[in-house]
Each structure stands twice: as structure tokens, then as C-alpha cells.
Amino acid sequence: MNIQNVYILEDRGILYINGADAEEFLQNMISNDINRVNEDNSCFASLLSPQGKFLFAFIIVKHKSGYFIDCEKSQTEALFKQLSIYKLRSKVEIMNLSNEFVVAAFNREKFLKFKCAKDAPGYTIKYREDPILLDPRNKDLGARLIINLEKLYLSLKKLELKDSPIDEYYQLSHQLGIAQKNMNKLQNKLFGIECNFEELNGIDFKKGCYVGQENTARIKLKNKLSKRLLPIQLISGKLTEGASIYANDIEIGKVLIDDKYPFALIKYLDENFKEGSELKSENAVLRIKLPSWI
């Protein structure tokens, strides 16, 4: 990621949660601790099913008296509806600001040139009144600016950032082993902890109860994590969503995301799985590599 490049993530949506009960409302639902989120720090979190299965993933950023929820745009409406279900009598306002605000990602080195910036995942500063944060999942993903669309290009010009192809950003994310695209294909197909959310700073095992907490804690405490969401390197052929993956004719995983940045749920502790070896799927030959942060 070049220090002058900026990636305008038009495929990200922004919700805004505000109101007297906003903090408690989020704390009772999300996998991370909302108390970590303040003017100086943002967090990565997920919303799970009561069984602990993955539903939504997002970044939470403090903004004025409420919270920005930075999520995949294709999931924005569904997340809005899910949050509204839990709202009940809470004094909370949920707004979809996806047509007004945009996310721009840029280099970590550029972020560290800002006054008061710190090299810590989630560390947040203000550019005028707009939050800039070092990605809370992994510092190598760089920084994110959440800004009103009307101010975007003038701000990027003043920051001496040059608009670059969005594919460069998502290729980096895939190389790092961090899924961000087509996350709807994961819904209810694996546990949140199998999405590597612990390693991506998205689960707090010390906070109180939240939706899906019981099974998440059980898998962790009983050391039953045997499968992980891992990036696929396609060697030849074509991937098929839901197709099994084989090593030595033994099934060791399944393709979950079969698009441009593919991922599979892999039994990474299986004796038949050898990192980097050629594996077979229905119509494809592929490799699986464990990210360095696991």
C-alpha cells in the first residue's frame, strides 16, 4: 500500500447509533466491549446469532454523542433491521447514513505522520471533526477515514492522497487473510470465533453476556476450535460455493466464499492438512495458507 494511495471504499455502509441507551444497547449485543470505544479508540466487533454463529461484522467508531457502525454495504439494510429488532424500548436512534458518509482507506505510514497518532490497532484521531483510525483488526490494513461525502475530495487533496483502484486494497486484505467482501455468504455457516475474530481483536472474553456469548466462550475455554476461515489461493479451475475441499481424498474443508477474494472453512488441525500443499475441490485445484497472525 503506497503512502500516497487512498482507496475510497464505496462498498462500505455507515449506520449511526445515538441516544441515551446507545452504549448499553450495543454492549448487550456485540462480541466486543463497547467501553473500549472512545474519542481515542475504535474497535472491531460482530453480531452473532444466539447459537454463536456469524451474522455481521463491523467497526465501531465514536462520533459526537453516538457511534458510527462501519459495515459491508450489502449488509447494511439487514444489519439495520437486526439492530431494530433488539431495540425494543431502548432510548436509541438508528440511522442509515450510507448515502452521506464514506470510508477511505490509506497507508499506515501516512497515518503515523499525523500529530498525536500512535501505532496501535484501533487508535483514533480527528482530522478536523472526522475520525481517522488505524484499523482495529490488523495494523497492516492501514487507516480509515470516515467522512461526509461532500467533504471527501477536498480533504483528500489537502492530505495529498491520490485515489487508487479499490482492488489493490482488497487484494492486500485477502493476502493478509482477512475477509471483508461477500460476508453475507458466511451467515449462520460458522461460529464467530471460527472467523478468527479473537485474533482480529473482535471478541472480548472478559465482558458480560452478549448474543451468542455462551457457545463462543465454551469453544474457547474447552479448546474446541478446530476449524478456521482461511484464504484460498486458486491454482486452476473454478471454485464452487459449498464445495468440499480434499487432501488425500479426505475432506478437510468447504468453500464458503467463491468470488474474487475466496475463503474456506478449513480443519486446520487435521493431520491431512499441510499448509501450502495442493488441495482439490469440485472443479478446482487450490492452496490454503495460514496467515502470519494466527
Report on this model:
- The protein has 294 residues and is α+β, with helices and mostly antiparallel strands.
- The chain folds into 2 domains: 5-176, Gyrase A, domain 2 (2-Layer Sandwich), CATH 3.30.1360.120; 226-294, Aminomethyltransferase beta-barrel domains (Elongation Factor Tu (Ef-tu), domain 3, Beta Barrel).
- The chain has helices at 22-27, 76-87, 108-112, 152-158, 166-176, 213-221, and strands spanning 5-9, 12-18, 43-48, 54-63, 66-72, 93-96, 101-106, 124-127, 130-134, 143-148, 162-163, 228-237, 244-247, 250-257, 263-266, 279-280, 284-288.
- The strands form 3 sheets. Strands 8-9-10-7-1-11 form a 6-stranded mixed β-sheet, with helices on both faces. A 6-stranded antiparallel β-sheet has the order 13-14-15-12-17-16, with no helix packed on it.
- A hairpin with a 5-residue loop joins β14 (250-257) and β15 (263-266).
- The radius of gyration is 19 Å and the shape is globular.
- The model has no long low-confidence stretch (mean pLDDT 97).
* Total E-strand runs: 17
Q: What is the helix fraction of residues, given as a range?
A: 10-25%
Distance between the termini: 22 Å
How does the overall form come out from the CA principal axes?
A: globular
The total count of helices amounts to 6
Structural class: alpha+beta
Question: Summed up, what is this model?
Answer:
With 294 residues, the protein is α+β, with helices and mostly antiparallel strands. It contains 6 helices and 17 strands.
